[in-house]
Amino acid sequence: MVRGLPGVKKDCVVAKPPLSDIERALQESEQRFRAIFDQAAVGISQVDLQGRWLLVNQKLCAIVGYTEEELLARTFQDITHPDDLETDLAYVSQLLAGTHNNYTMEKRYVRKDGEVVWINLSVSIVRDGAGQPAYFVSIIEDINLRKQIERELRASEERYRVLVDSVPQMMWLNRIDGRIAFFNQHVYEYTGRSEAEMVDGGWLQSVHPEDQAAVTQQHAAAIEAGAAYEFEARFKHRDGSYCWHMAEVVPLRNPAGDISGWLGTATEIDARKRAEEALSFLAEASATLSASLEYEATLQTVAELAVPRVADYCLIDIVEDDGQINRVAAVHRDPAKQQLIQESHLYLPQARAHSPLLRVLDTAQPALIPVVTEQSIRSVAVSDAHLRHIQALDPRSVIIVPMLVRGRAIGAIWLVIVDPQRKYDHADLALAENLANRAAQAVDNARLYRTAQAAVREREALLSIAAHELKNPLTALAGQTALLQRRTAREGSLGERDARSIRLIQEQAERLGAMLDALLDVSRLETGRLQLARQPLDAAELVRRVTEEVRLSLQLTGDQHHLVVQVPEQRMSIIGDALRLEQVVRNVIGNAVKYSHADTVICVTATQCDNTLLIMVQDQGIGIPPHALPRLFDRFYRVESAASQAPGLGIGLYVVKEIVAQHGGTVSVESVENQGSTFKIYLPLQNADPPSSAVSAGDVETG
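The structure corresponding to this sequence follows.
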């Protein structure tokens, strides 16, 4: 009130101060709100309780494609996707009922142009002073791009899932700590296990117990090192069998290079692994079978190789010449059942009529029994004791393959599995047949060798007896011929013709005696009965002496060959049998005389090469064809072109080679047809180490 002014009532009310500042502040506030409202990055609206738009900003208009005037003439129900409207209205009812003050949902609007747009809607209810609902405030966020990305991501994940599930390998993802995050469908199909059974380490139950420790150790080591790794392990199939797989696990890295997980794949390699193991097994079996001709012992070793690599127990039966079946090998992987398996042969005689073994031997066809049933066991048992014996061995899967020689079964190999989760298939049968073929060949070779050895012994005995029996009359004939020559020389009672006949008889008797001596040498060499009287010798003196003896012999017969000897004066010490080494030198010189023309030179030399004595005999004879050189020192071998020129048995050079070998030496030949041959004899000098072989292939040249 204003008081004391003239003309003014005393009790009048004083006017309020001007409101322009408040109005201006309110106006500014409204402008700021409008600026925020219109320029917001999200849609903002005010909606009445019936759903009519009361206030909308430009962002909302842009999201739905309507102008502000067009929206204000519509309700939110008009532009909500029909599939989302019921859910939205249910939330609105909760706000109106007062059970909730706000809600958020993802929904779709239908734009003016008909396109569908995804939004994230947040709605709050505003009440008046009396607490009654007045209107709604909505925040609308355009999430269409995010939804599109999510759709594309889901599509990509679906494509990835289809791709991963379609590959024939097992695949999985590990988290950074190694725990399983994902298996592809092939894992579940292969193992027959559910996702719940495979998580939290359950997958390890699908790995063979013998491989689990190695797999977990490699897995832990790789995670610690952050490096890729691979391993081979047996995984359990849903049918209970185990198959080999090659697994490869690589780390997955994020853009920063840090490990974010692990990707693993497992490819079945069972066929390859079984083939490798089969080849390795067959190689070892072949080496064993070829190592000895005592086939009973080698077959036992083969059975030991088969267990446990291809069988839990193995039996090998041989049909003897009299038709009896002899069990030569019986091996069980369980030492506690070894005695039991060895007793199985006791049932062979009485079980033959019922046993599949007899059918295999009679038909020469294998038997594959993938699953042994109780009924099949009872069908072959001939007694209660036999039944208990078979049941104790507990066969679950059996292969019986014949050992065939020229179409006839000479035995059979049993391979038996006792593990109920394993069973033989045709691949196992092929392996068993391969093994049986190799074993049959080894047995046949051993039997043939034994037969041949018996024949050789009989032949050598006959040869020795015959040689000795012939030697006696030859000695008497030679003696009587010598007496006759001396008597006729004294009395002069024979003519020249008869004297030549007597000399011929003597020469042929000596020749026949030399041949018998050679045959006896062969017999002694083959039976190991050639004894050497070793003593210190002067090789130079021995070569000179033998060469001179041959020279005198040639002169007596009128031979025109020229023998040249080149031997050092100093002693050349060797350890050997003088008579046998003289025989060697004499045979080689005689060979040169026999196969060279008269009036040609034969050169005999002896030299020292380091710790080795070299004796060479060089002729100018007919030479030796190149194809004959490798066999020249074989027993009874004769060069065809030389056989017609000079008689002989083809054992002289064989005896030379064997005698030289027994002295620790070697012999070789170099030859050119129609130019001559050079024989080289190498012997260790005293205190020298002998060469390793009897014939030096490197010295055999064709010219």
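The domain at 277-528 is CATH 3.30.450.40 (Beta-Lactamase).
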